[in-house]
Amino acid sequence: DPIWTYNTTQKADIACKVDTVTNFSDRAVIFNRTYYYKNTRVSFAIEGVFEPRERPADKMRIGMPGGPVEGWEELLYLSQNNMCGVFKVMLENPVVGTWFDLRVKNSSVEKGPDKNCSDNFKTHTTTSRRLYNSTCQSILIPTKNTSYVRWKA
After folding, report:
1. What are the residue boundaries of the structural domains of the chain, listed by start?
2. Residue 147 predicted with pLDDT over 80
3. Model pLDDT, residue 151
4. H or E element, residue 121
5. Does position 149 have pLDDT exceeding 60, yes or no?
6. β-strand 28-37 against 40-50: which pairing, if any?
7. pLDDT in the model for residue 96
8. Cα–chain-centroid distance for residue 42?
9. CB 21 within 8 A of CB 31
């Protein structure tokens, strides 16, 4: 089930950000992150390695598969039905920045995040913007018009 960034505090010119998991284990996850950056479809693979000392595994180092650590993603809140989560994203290399994302699984994105998830997200920010709208679903269809660049700030 693809995972959409529904709202974010990230100050980048992106829209329709979605993560699609391609491989998952107890230690790591590999997923494709796709979004529009200035109307260009951007897609790239990310490897997340879970912190071995973190139980439950709520924090992971992120970067290109097999590459150096570029930052961290930490799950701060997960809804009871596992359909919505609040994440803190901290990038260190090559882009530096910290922001919060409210992410929703594709199967429930049209109804939006549940109230508890939205309320938790609001405790981390005073301003945010919505990245998801119903036209974003078309980004899940691969096209030849895709750029495979790394982090865009």
Report:
1. 3-138
2. no
3. 47
4. helix 115-122
5. no
6. antiparallel
7. 87
8. 14
9. yes
Per-residue pLDDT for 86 more than 70?
A: yes
CATH class of 3-138: mainly beta
DSSP 19-88: EEEEEE-SSEEEEEEEEEETTEEEEEEEEEEE-TT-SS--EEEEESTTS---EEEEEEEE-TTSSEEEEE
Instruction: Count CB-CB contacts under 10 A for residue 43.
Output: 17
Long-range (24+ apart) CB contacts under 8 A made by 66-73 are 68/93, 69/93, 70/94, 70/151, 73/48
Q: Which two tokens stand for residue 126?
A: 């005073």
Per the listing, tokens 């979004």 go with: 35
Cα gap 149→40, rounded to integer Å: 11
- Supply the pLDDT for residue 141: 86
Extract the tokens encoding 130. 């919505």
The verdict on pTM exceeding 0.85 is yes
Average pLDDT over residues 20-33: 94
Residues whose CB is less than 8 angstroms from the CB of residue 53 and which lie 6 or more positions away in sequence, other chains included: none
